[in-house]
Every structure is written in C-alpha cells, then in structure tokens.
Write a structure and sequence with these properties.
Blueprint (H helix, E strand, L loop, with lengths): L1 H19 L3 E4 L1 E5 L4 H10 L5 E4 L8 H9 L3 E4 L12 H17 L7 E2 L8 H9 L3 E2 L4 E2 L8 H8 L8 E4 L3 H16 L2 E4 L2
Parallel strand pairs: 1-9, 2-3, 2-8, 3-4, 5-6, 7-8
Helix pairs in contact: 2-7, 4-5, 6-7
The structure holds zinc ion (ZN).
C-alpha cells in the first residue's frame, strides 16, 4: 500500500511536470501592413499576451506612420514583404533586388531595424528572387498554415486553421481584416492549452 501511494505520487508529479513544460513555440505572422487596421490588431495581440511578426510593405510606411510605430512600440518583429508587393516572377535580378532593398531601407529609416526575413508577395519565388534575398541577407519564410483570411474565411475558420499549427510553424494571416482581429484571443488561448507559446522572427 505504501509502495502504491508513493508510485501514485510519482505519477502525479511527472504529470504536473509534463503539463508545465512548453510543447514549443509558433510564429503568428501578419502580412500587408501597416494599415489603418494595425492598431486594433496590435492591441488584441498585446491583450492576449502574444508576440508576433509583421511582414510589411515598404511603400505603406510613409502613409501609416502611427500604425508602423504601434508595431514597433509593441516590440513585435517587423520584416520585409517587399516595397511594392508586385508579382516578381518575370522580373530581372536588379528589379527584384532594388524593390527588396527599398523595403529594407524604408523599415530601417523608420526605426524598425534591419529585416532578416522575407515573405514573398503572393508566396511567389524563383531562383532570381532567392538570389536577391541571399544578397540582402534575407531568409525566405513560407507559411506552414494558411488561415485563408485573405479569401473570406470566417473568424471561426481562422481560429480552427490555427489549431493545425505545430511547434516551429507560422501562419499566413493579414493585417487588414476584422475577422482576423477577432480571432486573436481564441487563437492564443488554444495555443496555450496545447502548451504552445508565441515567438517572433
Ligand atoms: Zn501580401
């Protein structure tokens, strides 16, 4: 009997230890800002206790300075999503390089640091785009979970998609949809319940 109690206690302790260990981290990523939506999204992320990465358009910074600063002041990661968000598959190396470099410079000049990561517009990549990224020290980040928020997914569908995130994975979400904004709290709660924390690039 004494042995069984001891063994039971051991199992309880191991169970508690297992529950307290993090299963890992995921990267909540938001493309296409800064926009007029950014302050709402940033606020919801902060309220949920999450961190995040924003892949932004370089040419949207000047007209959305307050939104850019909201991302920066929240301590979230600001990364490169190109300057003009163009289809680049037919572009020359110089065209691609100059566009990406222009985004690097715009982010840096606005106080966002020098990006190390690049999300290709429309998720389109080829050897030319990869070469330009390498020259600029940019690592390409393709999403592991597409929430389809860009294609009319409901808040419930966005939340559900994020239940497929595994440790080390990242989302395709956007800065600009109220459906996405409304999903943040539940997404972060569900991740916590699965032992997953949020990380940023
Ligand atoms: Zn985009």
């Amino acid at each position: 009997m004494k042995f069984n109690i001891g063994r039971s206690l051991l199992f309880v302790c191991l169970f508690a230890l297992g529950c307290s260990l993090k299963a890992g981290s995921v990267y909540l990523c938001f493309d296409d800002g800064p926009t007029s939506n950014t302050p709402t999204l940033v606020k919801n992320l902060k309220n949920a206790g999450a961190t995040a990465t924003f892949f932004i358009w370089g040419n949207r910074i000047a007209g959305n300075t307050a939104s850019f600063n909201a991302i920066k002041n929240a301590g979230f990661s600001i990364q490169n999503h190109s300057y003009t968000h163009s289809h680049m598959l037919t572009w020359t190396y110089t065209q691609v390089y100059n566009d990406l470099k222009q985004c690097q410079d715009a982010i840096k000049n606005a106080g966002g640091g020098t990006p190390k990561y690049f999300r290709p517009p429309y998720l389109e990549t080829n050897s030319t785009i990869k070469s330009a990224c390498a020259a600029l020290g940019l690592t390409i980040v393709m999403p592991s979970v597409d929430t389809k928020d860009w294609n009319g997914a409901t808040t419930a569908q966005i939340i559900s998609a994020c239940n497929n995130l595994q440790s080390g994975g990242n989302t395709l979400m956007h800065d600009g949809y109220s459906t996405t904004d409304a999903a943040i709290s539940s997404i972060v709660t569900n991740l916590k319940n699965r032992g997953l924390a949020t990380a940023k690039y």
